[in-house]
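Ops channel
N.P.: pipeline sanity check, posting one input/output pair.
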């Protein structure tokens, strides 16, 4: 349900996150939607720290992981258009 999607987007299972560090798993705004991201802890193209975007959308959790140096936000834009973030 939507409450579980909100919880799992904020506290993803199997992912070590330092919640004391506001830059890691930070809440950022992309295309007028609030999403969780690792973008603040790394430089563009720095593949040692994977770039991800994660957000709840209704009963779903959307996760986009970049495993390449091509970090175009067009993929994020398309997914946010189809599955808008339900983070208030």
């Amino acid at each position: 349900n939507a409450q579980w999607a909100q919880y799992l987007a904020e506290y993803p299972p199997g992912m070590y996150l330092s919640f004391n560090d506001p830059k890691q798993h930070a809440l950022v705004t992309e295309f007028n939607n609030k999403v969780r991201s690792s973008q603040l802890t790394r430089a563009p193209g720095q593949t040692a720290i994977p770039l991800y975007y994660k957000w709840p959308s209704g009963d779903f959790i959307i996760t986009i992981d970049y495993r390449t140096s091509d970090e175009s936000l067009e993929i994020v834009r398309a997914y946010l258009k189809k599955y808008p973030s339900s983070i208030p």
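N.P.: looks fine end to end. Residues 2-10 form the longest helix (9 residues).
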